[in-house]
Design a protein that fits this description.
By secondary structure, this protein is of the alpha+beta class. It is built from 17 helices and 29 strands. It has three domains: 90 residues, OB fold (Dihydrolipoamide Acetyltransferase, E2P) (Beta Barrel); 202 residues, Bira Bifunctional Protein, Domain 2 (BirA Bifunctional Protein, domain 2), CATH 3.30.930; 148 residues, Alpha-Beta Complex (YbaK protein). Helix content is 25%, strand content 26%. It binds aspartic acid (ASP).
Length: 627
């Protein structure tokens, strides 16, 4: 029964029901004009104000009559400009607050953090809505194109082992095998090569890849999507032609306004582009002010190796002489194999990079399929015996009949960014991670509950929030209090080392201080918290919690467990991944005060809020200090 905005033009004289958002409202005396937006577009509604009150971004349902607009009133700018809908009934389904930013602009002027926090509103902006829909069309086009070319779409695991793209891995701790970790894939590289051994011959996947590297304009932090593709029994030329043919058609069908400057795409030798342009991703556009000009090119004949640097995180971080230009599975040029023994830097690799308007939008290669060549490359990039062992499965697989193979992986986000001339990949992703590594809307990463951590056998130590030691712990406490939404009073004061000194300088009662003790209970670190005027009753604690052996941690152990000096340990076990026991006498005070990770900083807050944040086990295990 719902009519979409764009269908109104063919329903003149008919009664329709429309549903959507109010884009804008204009009042003229007793009459109101509403622009209604749905997934297809917009249409103008007109009616008496008395019909009801609807404001911008409210969700409404409108029953009305479609009328042809008089010639002079036709709006050429919108697809429904020849009609308007006379409102008969207006129902507000849901009201909208004032938006935190305008959505009728292109949005570049709005602070990125705010856009990210309210991403669902930012995506209402026409530019973003268009980008996300284009992206869907692009992926659908690629999928259809490849399926008709005999490709098989295959999913590969997300929880996997380290992959050699040269970046840092994201690790996922295993609960079933504590102390062990999965890595999120930097790319499906190894799996796609294994699929060639499996005889699939032509594989592709719209693959999510994860790299823990610093964000760049053309690469999102954390995760991105690429069209991952691999073929058997092919030459490098086959890969280049397939991709060139596919993207040429894609541009023609989905982006008819764009035009490709040169076809066939220039293929440039690495040595020559470097000499001529000083970069391996030259911007070959002739009219850089023409937003519709697309200059594709291939860079080929890369050297197989570059000199290794500290940035080669996965390889030797500068400890060996050579790092792969592309990755360690890239085949050397067959004529250059002897040079691997004599002059590795002279070896050419069968690598190909796809360049669009100055951006590298894809890379790939013909792969090594001879185990002895692979072993030689492992040695040259300085792999240790253990590192080689990590990839032994590849050599094993290759011992069972491996076809010659190769592939490529154009980045979906990067391709679309370059094609649309967007300033960042985040403009073509629905929920991108910000430059500082925080996710849209939901604010990950966040802290884990102590129970989760202990199940995983993990305790969190070391720098917290980019700061180390007590300062990091202080920052973490403030962060936790803020995210719990509780009130607290921070103090900065002279350095204090005992509960008595602290109480004096804060001008708070001694009994209100929360003394946090680090103990070893049957050899496991735990935290016990008692009021400042009381002390731990060891016997009582042991009996209550069925502990055989209980001892105080040494000052060195305290620092090892908490990263904080003795005298500044805050009563929060979760920060250090250790269980926390709080003595019930704490509840006799309405507030608690404590040194918050530093001798010079304290926090005072309501006792019940403290329990809310610390989530302690509460019991009775203290006695008065002078008792
Ligand atoms: N695995 C490579 C990458 O993600 C692409 C390829 O060699 O196919 O960059």
């Amino acid at each position: 029964m719902r009519t979409l905005t764009t269908d109104t033009v063919s329903k003149i004289g008919e009664e329709v029901t429309l549903q959507g958002w109010v884009l804008a409202r204009r009042d003229h005396g007793k009459i109101m004009f509403l622009d209604l937006r749905d997934r297809k577009g917009i249409v103008q509604l007109v009616g008496n104000k008395a019909l009801g009150d609807a404001r911008a971004e409210d969700v409404v349902e409108v029953a009305g009559l479609v009328k042809k607009r008089p010639e002079a009133m036709v709006n050429e700018k919108i697809a429904t400009g020849t009609v308007e809908v006379e409102i008969q009934k207006l129902t507000v389904i849901s009201k909208a607050h004032d938006l935190p930013f305008p959505i009728d602009t292109n949005g570049y002027e709005v602070n990125e953090e705010i856009r990210s926090k309210y991403r669902y509103l930012d995506l209402r902006r026409p530019r973003m809505a268009r980008n996300i829909r284009l992206r869907s069309k692009m992926v659908a086009f690629i999928r259809n194109f490849l399926l008709t070319q005999d490709f098989v779409e295959i999913e590969t695991p997300m929880l996997t082992k380290t992959t050699p793209e040269g970046a840092r891995d994201f690790l996922v701790p295993s609960r079933l095998q504590p102390g062990k970790f999965y890595a999120l894939p930097q790319s499906p590289q190894q799996y796609k090569q294994l699929l060639m051994v499996a005889g699939m011959e032509r594989y592709f996947q719209i693959a999510r890849c994860f790299r823990d590297e610093d964000p760049r304009r053309d690469r999102a932090y954390g995760e991105f999507t690429q069209l991952d593709l691999e073929m058997s029994f092919i030459t490098q030329n086959d890969i280049l032609e397939l991709i060139e043919g596919m993207f040429t058609r894609l541009v023609k069908e989905l982006f008819p306004d764009k035009h490709i400057l040169k076809s066939p795409w220039p293929r440039l030798a690495h040595k020559d582009v470097m000499k001529k342009y000083g970069t391996d991703k030259p911007d070959l556009r002739e009219h850089k002010d023409d937003p519709d000009e697309l200059a594709f090119s291939w860079t080929v004949d890369f050297p197989l190796f570059t000199e290794q640097s500290e940035a080669d995180f996965f390889y030797g971080s500068g400890k060996a002489k050579f790092a792969p230009s592309h990755h360690m599975f890239t085949a050397p040029h067959p004529d250059d194999i002897p040079l691997l023994d004599t002059d590795p830097m002279k070896v050419r690799g069968l690598q190909h990079d796809l360049v669009l308007n100055g951006f590298e939008v894809g890379g790939g290669s013909i792969r090594i399929h001879q185990p002895e060549v692979q072993t030689k490359v492992f040695d040259l990039i300085g792999f240790t015996q253990e590192q080689k062992q990590e990839f032994a499965h590849m050599l094993t697989a290759f011992s069972y009949g491996v076809p010659p193979h190769g592939g490529i992986a154009p980045g979906i986000d990067r391709f679309l960014m370059a094609l649309l001339g967007e300033p960042s990949v985040r403009e073509v992703m629905a929920f991108p991670t910000s430059a500082s590594g925080t996710t849209s809307v939901m604010d990950a990463p966040s802290t884990a509950a102590p129970e989760q951590l202990s199940e995983l056998g993990i305790s969190v130590k070391g720098p917290i929030l980019g700061k180390s030691g007590g300062e990091g712990v202080y920052a973490r406490i403030i962060e936790d209090l803020k995210s719990a939404g509780v009130a607290y009073e921070p103090y900065e004061h002279e350095a204090v080392r005992t509960s008595e000194e602290a109480a004096r300088i804060r001008n708070t009662p001694l009994r209100e201080g929360a003394k946090a003790l680090v103990l070893y209970a049957d050899d496991k670190p735990v935290m016990a918290v008692v009021p400042g005027d009381r002390k731990l009753d060891t016997k009582l604690f042991k009996a209550t919690y069925q502990v055989n052996d209980l001892r105080m941690a040494t000052p060195e152990e305290v620092e090892k467990v908490t990263n904080v000096q003795i005298g500044a340990v805050p009563p929060f076990g979760h920060i250090f991944g250790i269980p926390i026991y709080v003595d019930a006498a704490i509840r006799e005070n309405s507030s608690v005060s404590y040194n918050a990770g530093m001798h010079t900083r304290s926090v005072r807050m309501a006792e019940k809020d403290y329990e809310k944040v610390a989530k302690p086990i509460v019991g009775a295990f203290s006695k008065l200090t002078n008792a």
